[in-house]
């Protein structure tokens, strides 16, 4: 099986000239010369980037998905290749109804007719990992209309084969590509594999869906389907059936009376809320996964689907990003440069003035322009080129955020080309920064830590006593001994002051 798959990949690579595209980065030039001599009859009329996209489409869904993910890594790829890979679509034919019904019976130990009152054997959506059918639960289970997501059979074996081959090719790239060791293509493949294996567990996707729904409880601008946990397994996920218009159908949205500029502003708010408030965001927000509600109760609200890929950010990541976004909006490029160095992402010996000038050259041209005149793709590309020049490390936890931001750009262009992203996002970020770093943030943080301090407070008198009773350090230099004694007294005094302050604050909050 693996040898047959390898032969297939080699055949496609030769047909589209991928060997030349790889070997031309080898410093000696011998490998590309040998390839051209061996395959002397080949003549290519299409650009290399187009040939790469066509080859990935020929190799099947796993390679298509890898190309989609790789298209977001503009730090690794030339602009023409990244733009071409971004055109890849998950056009995967559905698997048969018989296989779908067999997978349901395998998951539940009983046939679909015993699990669902109605089950539509014709899928409504099909992708590389799974496909979706509509169904209805029995009256005893609520009688709800549901969407049933079924994992493609034997996907784990297919993934293992293709990812193993991708890792082999990535290792070859590291050897023949001049930038291979610095850009670590094998690490990129490993990151891709992690996300794919996560998608193979539909219980994980159900948990992602449930978390996002909880984060947006009561929201008027975003709906997340409810998960029916009693019917979820690692290979089958059952959730509330959502009804709406695909966001790509702008004519239908206008006919339904949807306010497109308001919808685009709500999309920006949803993105920044997920990133900065929750640190947990939908990382696959392409138009196929976004609908718009038309029912009177939630008219004009977003409906999110497909939660196989989510991104997470730590408090450090969120703070770093918020500082950078705000600095960008205020055109404070020195603050941007300093934030990179303070976060440890740029070397400590970086010339701040040079880094500031380089960032200004990238960002200044995009201000005061509507979204239709701005390409985040080009801005990100130039930022990555600047990062490479100043040896800035690309943070893997932000790769999904970059991908999501590019998706937001596409949706924004489609809905309202005149959207001013900067003016829309700036008040939200300023409010968030005030809540996190202002007095409100201080009080909230104090309340979160109060239970820990309550456990520590009874120990403080003993710690202060130990500090006062600590024997003096015998030092041959009287001056140093005196300084050490003074320092101990100051530490003890600070301990007493801290004890009093904590006690006063706790009394103020709880009483």
Layout: helices, strands, pairs:
Layout: H1 2-16, H2 18-23, H3 30-38, H4 48-59, H5 61-70, H6 79-85, H7 97-108, H8 112-115, E1 116-119, E2 125-126, E3 130-137, E4 145-151, H9 155-176, H10 180-183, H11 185-199, H12 202-215, E5 222-223, E6 236-240, E7 245-246, H13 250-255, H14 260-278, E8 280-282, E9 290-292, E10 302-304, E11 310-312, H15 315-329, H16 333-342, H17 352-363, H18 376-389, H19 399-415, H20 421-437, H21 439-456, H22 460-469, H23 478-510
Parallel strand pairs: 5-10
Antiparallel strand pairs: 1-3, 2-3, 3-4, 4-6, 7-9, 8-11, 9-10
Helix pairs in contact: 1-4, 4-5, 4-6, 9-11, 14-19, 14-20, 15-16, 15-20, 16-17, 17-18, 20-21, 22-23
Task: Provide a descriptive summary of the structure in words.
With 511 residues, this protein is an alpha+beta fold. The protein folds into 3 domains: 2-90 and 156-198, no CATH class; 242-437, no CATH class; 448-510. The chain has helices at residues 2-16, 18-23, 30-38, 48-59, 61-70, 79-85, 97-108, 112-115, 155-176, 180-183, 185-199, 202-215, 250-255, 260-278, 315-329, 333-342, 352-363, 376-389, 399-415, 421-437, 439-456, 460-469, 478-510, and strands spanning 116-119, 125-126, 130-137, 145-151, 222-223, 236-240, 245-246, 280-282, 290-292, 302-304, 310-312. The strands form 3 sheets. Strands 1, 2, 3, 4 and 6 form a 5-stranded antiparallel β-sheet that branches. Strands 5-10-9-7 form a 4-stranded mixed β-sheet. A two-stranded antiparallel sheet has the order 8-11. A hairpin with a 7-residue loop joins strand 3 (130-137) and strand 4 (145-151). Helix 4 (48-59) crosses helix 5 (61-70).
């Amino acid at each position: 099986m693996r040898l047959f798959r390898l032969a297939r990949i080699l055949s496609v690579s030769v047909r589209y000239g991928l060997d030349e595209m790889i070997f031309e980065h080898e410093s000696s030039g011998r490998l590309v010369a040998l390839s051209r001599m061996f395959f002397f009859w080949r003549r290519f009329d299409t650009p290399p980037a187009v040939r790469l996209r066509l080859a990935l489409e020929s190799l099947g869904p796993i390679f298509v998905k890898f190309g989609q993910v790789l298209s977001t890594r503009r730090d690794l790829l030339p602009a023409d290749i990244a733009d071409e890979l971004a055109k890849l679509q998950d056009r995967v034919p559905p698997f048969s109804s018989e296989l779908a019904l067999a997978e349901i019976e395998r998951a539940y130990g009983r046939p679909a007719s015993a699990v669902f009152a109605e089950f539509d054997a014709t899928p409504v959506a099909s992708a590389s990992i799974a496909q979706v059918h509509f169904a209805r639960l029995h009256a005893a289970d609520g009688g709800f209309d549901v969407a049933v997501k079924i994992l493609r059979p034997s996907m784990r074996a297919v993934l293992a084969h293709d990812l193993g081959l991708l890792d082999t090719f990535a290792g070859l790239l590291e050897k023949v590509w001049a930038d291979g060791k610095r850009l670590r293509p094998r690490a990129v493949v490993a990151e891709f594999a992690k996300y794919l294996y996560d998608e193979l567990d539909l219980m994980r996707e159900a948990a992602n869906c449930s978390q996002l729904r909880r984060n947006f409880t009561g929201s008027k601008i975003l709906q997340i389907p409810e998960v029916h946990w009693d019917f979820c397994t690692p290979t089958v996920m059952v959730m509330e059936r959502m009804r709406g218009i695909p966001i790509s159908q702008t004519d239908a949205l206008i006919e339904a009376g949807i306010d497109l500029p308001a919808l685009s502003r709500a999309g920006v708010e949803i993105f920044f809320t997920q990133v900065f408030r929750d640190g947990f965001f939908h990382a696959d927000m392409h138009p196929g996964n976004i609908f718009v509600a038309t029912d009177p109760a939630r008219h004009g609200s977003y409906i999110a689907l497909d939660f196989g890929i989510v991104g997470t950010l730590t408090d450090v990541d969120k703070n770093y990003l918020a500082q950078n976004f705000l600095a960008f909006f205020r055109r404070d490029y020195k603050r941007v440069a300093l934030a990179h160095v303070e976060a440890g992402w740029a070397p400590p010996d970086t010339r701040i003035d040079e880094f500031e000038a380089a960032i200004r050259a990238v960002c200044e041209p995009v201000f005061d322009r509507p979204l239709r005149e701005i390409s985040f793709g080009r801005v990100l590309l130039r930022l990555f080129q600047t990062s490479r020049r100043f040896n800035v490390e690309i943070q893997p936890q932000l790769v999904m955020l970059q991908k999501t931001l590019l998706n937001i750009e596409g949706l924004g262009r489609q809905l309202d080309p005149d959207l001013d992203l900067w003016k829309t996002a700036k008040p939200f970020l300023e409010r968030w920064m005030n809540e996190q770093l202002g007095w409100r943030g201080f009080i909230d943080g104090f309340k979160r830590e109060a239970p820990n301090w309550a456990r520590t407070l009874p120990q403080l008198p003993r710690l202060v006593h130990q500090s006062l009773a600590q024997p003096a350090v015998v030092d041959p230099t009287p001056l140093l001994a005196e300084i050490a004694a003074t320092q101990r007294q100051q530490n003890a005094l600070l301990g007493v002051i801290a004890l009093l302050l904590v006690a006063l604050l706790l009394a103020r909050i709880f009483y």
